[in-house]
Amino acid sequence: MRPTIIDTRSENQPELQNLAVLKFGGSVLADAQAVHGAAHEIYRYLRAGEKVLAVVSALAGETDELIALGNDIGGGDNAPGASALLRLGEIRAAALLGLALERIGIDARAVDPSEIDLRASGKSDDARLCGLDHMRLATLLTRHEVLVVPGFSGVLEDGQPALLGRGGTDLSAIYLGASLGAKRVRLIKDVDGLYVRDPKTGTNPRRFAQINWEDARKFCGPSIQPRALDYAQKHNLSLEIAAPARGFDTCISADGVTSHAKARTRRLKVVLLGFGTVGEGVYAHLQRHPDLFEISGILVRDAAKERANGAPAQLISTDASDVFATRPDIVVEMIGGVEAADAFILNAFFGGADVVSANKAVMAANYDSLHKAAARAGRTLRYSAAVGGGVPMLEALDQACEASNVCSLLGVINGTANFILDRLANGCAFETAVREAQDAGFAEADPSADLDGDDAAAKLCLMARHGFGATLRANQISMESLSDLDPARIEAARNDGKIIRQISEIRRDAKGALCASVSLKTLAKDHYLAGAKGERNRLVINTDGGESICLRGKGAGRWPTAEAVMADILDIHRLRGQYEENVTVRAPEIACA
Questions:
Q1: Residue 359 resides in a domain
Q2: Is residue 372 located within the same domain as residue 419?
């Protein structure tokens, strides 16, 4: 028996809080590598505390290639097998985006329309959506951070696939957003909103901040599928029309029409201080956005070192004065340590640059002085990657504080300790486990910061600032070293079917004072924190309202950490590199690109 289908939500259906439905069209997914840009957009909303349902079109040109292939093989566009063939483009795009999200440590799942019984009716090549296994989809969304759904198709009553017509992915996104009570439905295209004229004509047309349904339907043409607009209006669902990485959009709703000057974007110069594993990942991301960023310099210790990414030799220097002489807009600090990093950050501020740092040590040691320097210079300081790698722990603490008071947090926030503890549990000698961690790239040549708890303690200092609004110094944190772990304790845990983890904790005592520790705890295998393996981190935030917020993901490694750095860089671009003239007029006519 097929599951019950639901066209719109009823009172008995669970409503997902803070759900963002993001639709990525073929104009955005220009090729397979473009899925990394889509991953940036998804991560942007994840770290703002929203669940994400991503709906994707086929990569640019792929549907046309499939049509040509089908015609060449035989049967024509409307042959019974054509729908099964043409939907493959969206399925491929969804799988590629799922892989890109997995690389940065996001728990993502690609979902076929048949799996959620996304029901369609009508012709197989021009159908309408009419049903959904809402409970199945809601369950999947509670289990995963991101679901990726191929747009453009549904399932007929007889189980056969059906297409939703040209622009059908718009309808998929809007239908799912309305069914799930989404906080936002954002159609991400190749322009940052709707304009009075085609913005590609070079006539500097005005962009609409808001537009009503009638004007949108009358003038938007093929930019948005008319059937999708009708469905959104019927269900009073506001739509956002936007471009990747942009801070501007157009909202389509019942409200009146307002227009603004065309949004202006300028390229920002970026300097990278440090070019190791994470630095090379950040470089790769920046290279995919030549319209937004220019890499003007890279500071390294060894200019002769062979590098696989092909960074031009003229960008690389061992002299900090050379890279700062390029007058960067953003300085990305990834050298580690305290003294040199502190000097570079201060130099960046007073040279007029904003700073993104992945350096927990300097941020924990000099938090107050660096923030004061940034304020005096009128610059921005971001450091999301310093804690949790790709897991947005600091952002989650900020959001928790806005809604309630954080009373405690505990987590596994050092992947090197995970790796070594797992090897010890398997009977490996301590020295061998440490050496293997170094060979795997988890541990430094000097692993003492990971082993003794100093790395985790520095992260706790920053988490105390964001979660408790309090100053916490490393010397106030009690620490237990892996070096002191008794082999008998390891054997006892193994015999009991339990796991030892390095647990970092902050809590308030009975008098309200903060108590913090980095200790080794024996956990049952089904304990949430026991599930952190290798470079993966987990965190539980408890509030005085009784809520427990659980986060998980990759806390280290090139791509997860580079993603957090890139998210900070893109935030700064939206703050500094994108402009709009705030002139409000009633526009007599509109057209869409």
A1: yes
A2: no
Q: Is 218 a catalytic site residue? A: no
First to last CA, the chain: 45
Cβ 380 vs Cβ 354: under 8 Å:
yes
Assigned domain for 31 exists: yes
Identify the weakest region by mean pLDDT among 16-25, 113-122, 301-310, 416-425: 301-310
**Mapping DSSP to helix (H, G, I), strand (E, B) and coil, where does residue 443 land?**
coil
Domain coverage including residue 489? 393-556
- Phi and psi at residue 161, to the nearest 5°: -70, 150
Are both 397 and 546 inside the same structural domain? yes
pLDDT score at 56: 98
Structural domains counted in the chain: 4
**CATH assignment of the domain containing 464:** 3.30.360.10
Residues 431 and 545 in one domain: yes
Query: What does DSSP say about strands 258-260 and 207-212: parallel, antiparallel, or unpaired?
Result: antiparallel
User: CA nearest 177: which of 116, 237, 247?
Assistant: 237
Tokens representing 447 are 């692993």
Same domain, 151 and 38: yes
What pLDDT, in 10s, does the model give residues 502-525? 999 999 988 888 999 999 999 999
pLDDT at position 2, please?
A: 34
CA-CA distance, 263 to 591, in Å (whole number)? 16
Question: From the candidates 262, 459, 521, 554, which is the catalytic residue?
Answer: 459
